[in-house]
Structures are given as structure tokens and as C-alpha cells.
Design brief:
2 domains; eight-stranded mixed sheet; disordered N terminus; 7 helices; Nuclear Transport Factor 2, Chain: A; six-stranded mixed sheet; alpha+beta
Length: about 300
């Protein structure tokens, strides 16, 4: 107990600056950040299964490794036994919210502590959670997609750092558009990547769709900018990138949306990698959709036993 009290005091001291920073956020974004922190706190106390059942929408999506209904997946798992064998914790570090205040996202580090007698080393990674405000006014998760474990711990994993809202921008929304048409437009953009890549190359085609301050996620790496894409998509016109959207959503204000599905990257007609993706989109000052956050996770084929 002697070691526990100083540790709790240290965590409390780290949390105070974060709470102070949160008070300066716009109301909708502050609510979203608070909801994320409440989700993490609930998970630490009650475990992954109960937390996902409590904080996800009925149509919420997780990846195992492909997209599937979160409540159906966790509802089939056995009830949580306490004390918890593994404790998952995380915090929001970056994010944004729609103009209507009904759709938003958070990105940040996560950490798993092993409480079993084996006491394996902590496991680290990053998550992307997309939230929707429901009819009762509560924020719920509609999609959660993170980078896998096995990442070395860095100073960026130290919890208690202040939340950084996305750069303020003026999104132009075309007259006469609605969220259903906008979602259709986003999926058409993704389906058109293959044809565009035939002439411009997959790398240049993908980079041209990004915002200047995009957050790119990739397994084994902390979120960063466009340079991450150059590490896994080769330059040249002999490289193609195919997206097959499976779902998504757009805010009522029609300035903010998300998509997810499967992808395949080919070079010289041969599959280089394939897996699943999620994109978060926001309109720019000209009304064009730009990717503000991207997570592409390769699913490697299983080796024959």
C-alpha cells in the first residue's frame, strides 16, 4: 500500500493539467473527451467486455480482424471475473468534432497491464475511436480501430498529457447536400482510388486526398503525418490501391464523416498486402472531402502448420 499511494498521487497530479485544458475546449468536444475518459475509467474498473457493452452503440463496429458488431462479439464472451487479469487503460490525445456536435473522434495511446502471476511486460499501442451522439444526448462509440500490440513504449505513452484539438478550419458545405448523399460520395471516392492510381500511382493518389495535418496510424508506429504512408506504399505507377468500403456515417452538418472496409495494395500486379482500413473525413474550405485521420492495418496470411 505504501507504493500505491504515491503512484495514485502522481496520477492525480498528471490529470489536473489535462482537466484544465479540457475546460477550454468547445462544449461538444469537451463532452466527447469526457466521454472517452469515462469509457477508459469504466474499463479499468469493470473490464473490456462490460465496458464495450456499456459504451458502444447497438451498431458499433470493432475489428477482429475484420469489421464486426461490437456488442454481438463481446456479448458472447463469458462474464468478467474480478479481480481483472488484464487491465486496459487509455486516454484521448488528439481529436475533432463535427459542426453539428453529433459525430467526432479521438486518437490516443493505450496500455495493457498483466496482473496474472506471469506478470508479462505491458503491451502498448494506439487507438482511433469514432463517437456519435445518440437521441438521448449520450455519446456512444460507433467504431473502434487501433494499432496492434508489440509496440515499444515511448514517452508518448505517458498518460496525463493534454488533449490537442484539431486545427480550427472553415469547412464549406455544398448547398442541397445531405448526410446520405455525402456518405455515398465518400464511398465513391474510395472506390475510385484504383482507377486514379493507374495513372498517378497509388502513393500520390492517396497523399492528394489527405489534409495537411492528417494523423496517420500504422502498426508499430505512433500516429504521425503523411510520411508514414511513404513507408508502406511504394512510389511509381506500377502500384495500385483498392478500397472496398463496408460502412460509415456522416454528421448532420455534412462537414464530417467516416468510412471503413477492406483494402488491397498491389505492385506489378501482385498483392503486396491487404487488410482493413478506416478513414475520418472532413470538408475543406472549398467543400472538398479530405482525410484527416487514417488507419490501415495489414492482415498477414496465416502460415500453414
Amino acid at each position: 500500500m505504501g507504493k500505491l499511494i504515491p503512484m495514485l498521487l502522481a496520477i492525480l497530479c498528471l490529470a489536473v493539467p489535462s482537466l484544465s485544458q479540457d475546460s477550454k475546449l468547445p462544449r461538444a468536444q469537451r463532452e466527447l473527451v469526457e466521454a472517452e475518459r469515462a469509457f477508459a475509467k469504466y474499463c479499468v474498473a469493470n473490464g473490456i467486455r462490460d465496458a464495450w457493452l456499456e459504451f458502444f452503440t447497438d451498431d458499433g463496429v470493432i475489428f477482429q480482424p475484420g469489421p464486426m458488431n461490437a456488442k454481438e462479439f463481446h456479448g458472447k464472451r463469458p462474464p468478467t471475473i474480478k479481480p481483472l487479469k488484464f487491465i486496459l487503460d487509455w486516454e484521448p490525445r488528439w481529436g475533432d468534432v463535427s459542426r453539428a456536435g453529433d459525430l467526432g473522434y479521438n486518437i490516443g495511446p493505450w496500455n495493457i497491464v498483466d496482473n496474472t502471476p506471469a506478470k508479462e511486460p505491458d503491451v502498448h499501442g494506439y487507438y482511433m475511436s469514432i463517437w456519435r451522439k445518440e437521441a438521448d444526448g449520450k455519446w456512444k462509440v460507433v467504431l473502434d480501430f487501433g494499432t496492434g500490440g508489440g509496440m515499444a513504449a515511448t514517452s508518448d505513452h505517458v498518460f496525463g498529457k493534454p488533449f490537442q484539438p484539431a486545427r480550427p478550419s472553415k469547412s464549406k458545405v455544398p448547398a442541397g447536400s445531405d448526410s446520405a448523399k455525402a456518405l455515398q460520395g465518400l464511398t465513391e471516392i474510395e472506390r475510385g482510388f484504383f482507377n486514379k492510381a493507374q495513372s498517378a500511382g497509388a502513393l500520390d493518389t492517396y497523399l492528394a486526398q489527405f489534409s495537411d495535418d492528417v494523423k496517420v496510424m500504422r502498426a508499430g508506429l505512433p500516429p504521425a503525418g503523411k510520411e508514414i504512408v511513404e513507408s508502406y506504399i511504394p512510389a511509381g505507377k506500377n502500384v495500385s490501391l483498392t478500397f472496398v468500403p463496408a460502412g460509415g456515417g456522416v454528421a448532420k452538418s455534412n462537414d464530417f464523416g467516416y468510412t471503413y472496409g477492406s483494402y488491397e495494395l498491389q505492385q506489378n500486379g501482385q498483392t503486396k498486402e491487404k487488410g482493413y482500413y478506416s478513414h475520418i473525413w472532413k470538408r475543406d474550405e472549398k467543400g472538398n472531402w479530405r482525410i484527416v485521420a487514417s488507419n490501415i492495418e495489414e492482415v498477414k496470411p496465416r502460415k500453414a502448420s
